[in-house]
Write a structure and sequence with these properties.
It contains three helices and four strands; from the N terminus they run αβααβββ. It is α/β, with parallel strands linked by helices. Helix 1 packs parallel to helix 2. The chain is globular and about 45 Å long. The termini are far apart.
Length: 149
């Protein structure tokens, strides 16, 4: 999905998810960069509201209000439950947010949605890290193990 216009990025993401769910072709996973590489512009300024909006859209609840709250109704509740079973109990779709070079550069509070998304962000040299260091937040229910350490 094109990053621009940035002001409507979140709404376009939710509309795409909702349309796929309504057509009976829900997404298993959603990978979203919160910052556009070309302009360094933030596309997702409010991560918790964005994640809640994605969840509502995927469940067929019509997206979200301006505050990121879920729409009314539970039209997709059964579909969401069966999708979670297919993903081994993980929320469906699996939402992965790419924070770009956000580690130690952008204030990011994921407390509200820590169980609803994975978050990965690179580290710039100002944080005192080395090259190829990449913090990753996984869902607590995720039984993932690194391929190599």
């Amino acid at each position: 999905m094109p990053a621009e216009p940035a002001a409507s990025f979140a709404e376009r993401c939710c509309a795409t998810l909702a349309a796929a769910a309504a057509a009976g072709r829900p997404f298993d996973g959603v990978y979203v960069s919160t910052t556009t590489y070309l302009t360094q512009r933030t596309l997702v300024p409010n991560i918790p509201a964005f994640v809640r909006s994605l969840r509502a859209a995927a469940a067929g609840n019509g997206g979200s209000g301006s505050d990121g709250s879920r729409g009314s109704g539970a039209a997709g509740a059964d579909g969401a439950a069966s999708a979670e079973q297919a993903l081994g109990g993980l929320p469906s779709p699996l939402i992965i947010l790419d924070g770009y070079h956000g580690f130690a550069a952008l204030p990011t509070d994921l407390a509200e949605v820590a169980g609803d998304c994975c978050y990965v962000a690179g580290m710039l040299k100002h944080a005192g890290g080395c090259k190829r260091l990449l913090p990753l937040l996984l869902l607590g229910r995720c039984r993932c193990a690194p391929g190599s350490t």
